[in-house]
UniProtKB/TrEMBL annotation:
Keyword Magnesium: yes
Single Gene Ontology BP annotation: phosphate-containing compound metabolic process
Cofactor(s) named in the record: Mg(2+)
Protein name (Swiss-Prot/TrEMBL): inorganic diphosphatase
EC number: 3.6.1.1
Keyword Metal-binding belongs to the record: yes
Highest taxon in the source lineage: Bacteria
Amino acid sequence: MANDKLHDIWNKFGKRYKAHPWHGINVGEGAPEVVRCYIEVVPGDQMKYEICKESGYLMIDRPNKFSNTIPVPYGLIPKTYSAEAMAEFCMQQTGRTGIVGDEDPLDICVLMDRALPHGDLLLDAVVVGGFRMIDGGEADDKIVAVLKGDHTYGDIKDIKDCPQKLIKRIKHYFLTYKEDPDNPESTKEVEITHTYGREEALEVVRRSQQDYETHYGSLNEDLAKTLAEALNVTV
């Protein structure tokens, strides 16, 4: 009953105030197979945008310094996080030790046949695979998905059935987007150990949801208590 009341409270808040893209958007009943995701960056953007974790607004992370631009829309899966469960799975799959989560939401790339004019929007995507990326010793997986109902890519079920030249372009972007021509050795900190298929990608999404629940699962209850204390009522 208490949880139902909390759910009703936050639904009412959502009708008046914009939801936080990371904490306030439901990933969808079809997860982990089909996920609602928040797009931050689209091909052609000259800036690297990402959400401000505190406010939920889209902000400029940095200008694109060199020629590399993201080849597909890119963003995050709400209510996911990379921490202990993600790090454990990365070490299990790679045989490495000392890996930690990057403490960010799980990233997602979405293949579609129509251009998006801008980010800061939601869409539903079907998970088909991903990249196991390790950035400076941190698990930083990139999920690959296709836009639900897309005319060209919508029937794809696994990353092996995606156009492989496009998959290579996405992979190349992540391996080089931090590259400094004056310091090429710096890119050694970023590596992609595996390109994995649908089933492994679904486990990555589950692990990221588990990490979110561990670190942020009590967020609604904490907010309710804060509100109750401010109003001097009992919950």
